[in-house]
Amino acid sequence: SRGNVVGAEDMAEKYGADTGRLYTLFATSPEKDLEWSEESIEGSWKFLNRVYRLVQRHADAVRGVKSGNAGDSGAAQGSDSTWPKEKQLLRKTHQTLRRVTQDFEKRWHFNAAIALIMDLTNEIHKLEPLDEGVRPEVQKEVLELLTLMLAPMVPHIAAELWEMLGHEEGQWQASWPAFDAELARDTEVEIVVQVNGRVRGKVTVPAGMSEEQIIPLAVAEPSVAQHLAGKSIKKRIVVPDKLVNLVVA
What we know:
The protein is α+β, with helices and mostly antiparallel strands. Helix content is 55%, strand content 12%. It is built from 11 helices and 4 strands. It has helices at 8-15, 17-27, 38-62, 73-77, 83-107, 110-126, 136-150, 155-164, 181-184, 211-220, 222-228; strands at residues 188-195, 198-206, 233-239, 243-248. A hairpin with a 3-residue loop joins β3 (233-239) and β4. α2 (17-27) crosses α6 and α5 packs parallel to α7. The termini are far apart.
């Protein structure tokens, strides 16, 4: 009645329907009100253009190859010269897919999923040029997964990107991809360190460290050490990859 609204048709005409959809999903969580921002919707438009240019840049090189399976020995092992960059790219992609899948299936936090996809896009750009150190089949796998993760939010541009990558069938016919559990596994974890049940610090360590390896690092953390000064450790409680509790007296 006050005319203080933004028309969906006007927004779609100026930015495109996909941009409007991405912006409304990214701006806030479903249970909260949306405060319109012209600057923010332009940010969503720029992001989609960035993804489009990324796929367009590599489309010719990957269109005729078969997408690499990260679990196959070819993609998982690679040559000595290409493996480190491929590993970094595949790990980031499958970690993102794991978390986006969880957001879709359990939490319905589309804004968090979009933020993860944006972070993945930034990581891909950091690793450019992809044709140096990343084989075409691995490039294609990463770009396909990026496209499929975006598809629920921006179906029109995703369908075009899917076609650019060499698929004759529509993107909507593709199943939701499964992440590779080994590649998606965290290589580092942040462990909370408690003294007598109170949080006194945190340490970042390689995932899977044993209790004997973690305790010296936890004790040496400066914010923890000051609470241990002059006291003896009576008991150690360790939850692997999550928590260390030092009971002192």
